[in-house]
Design goal:
With 183 residues, the chain is an alpha+beta fold. The chain has one domain: 3-Layer(bab) Sandwich (minor pseudopilin epsh fold), CATH 3.55.40.10. It has one helix at 20-71, and strands spanning 75-81, 95-102, 107-113, 118-124, 131-133, 147-154, 160-167, 173-176. The strands form 2 sheets. A 4-stranded antiparallel beta sheet has the order 3-2-1-5, with helices on one face. The protein has a 4-stranded antiparallel beta sheet with strand order 4-6-7-8, covered by helices on one side. A hairpin with a 4-residue loop joins strand 2 and strand 3. The protein is elongated. It starts with 19 loop residues before the first helix and ends in a 7-residue tail after the last strand.
Amino acid sequence: MQTQNRPPCRSSKASRGVLLIEILVALAIVAVLGCLVLPAFQQMLREYRLRVAAQDLSSQIAWTRSEALRRSGRVTLRFTPLSDCPNGLPAGAKYCGWRIYQEADGQLLHQHLLPRGIHISEVNSAGGDDVNFTGSDMDAIPGLGIKSFVLSAEGASGDRASRILCMSSGGRVRIAAAGECKA
């Protein structure tokens, strides 16, 4: 009789698979790393949403200006008051979005609500909070001057991030790096 050369049966640790304790240690490491990364991810997401909201407002102001020129009439961007906001807003919030109207007939051209957690906390202007454009003469509207808009977002820990938009008397908008808007 011939004997076959078979590998011996191995009952070593490598052939048994993964132990429950190894899985639990791996899960604990993943949980700790998740707790370390989550606050930074939330802050990054809040900053992104705030930047997008600032870009939306900037583009809507440009659109309002172009609509006034196209329609040869007065078009107004009016901020949505808190009483018309569907979501609760933090203290210090002033507006939660905007509406764009054609002044001749009061027709609503566009409406925009900011994402939850983002709000307009300040509008600085001598001529009121509305942004008005006419189709023929931009300087004919009293109080247009330099305007600034502050969009804010509150963090879970109470910290606040904000973006400042500056609008010149001609209607050009830029997002300010920091501080006040200058002529």
